[in-house]
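CHAIN AND CONFORMATION:

***
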Amino acid sequence: MEWNIQLTTKRLDQWKTDTEQKFTRVRDLLDVLEAEEDTLKKVWKSGAMEQWEREFQLLIAKLRTQLKEMQKLILVLGEAADRLAQIEKDMMYDAEKL
């Protein structure tokens, strides 16, 4: 009997790490946007600016909330990856005994 066991947990871990780095980059960009918005407030004073600022703040808040939710999902994924890694180790051990 020929066995073909493919271990995929390392790729999943790498994807998780890459995704976390992208989240960090997005948060950094959001911080930059907010800083630029502060600069814009100093030079653009009008009713339109106030309306734009309200919408901008709402969108930024939604983005940050969604990022937090996605990070929670990544944590769940990480826990699943750890369990899969253990299953893969168990499978390899069992296959070696055959």
Q: What stands out?
A: The helical segments are 9-43, 47-97. The longest helix spans residues 47-97.
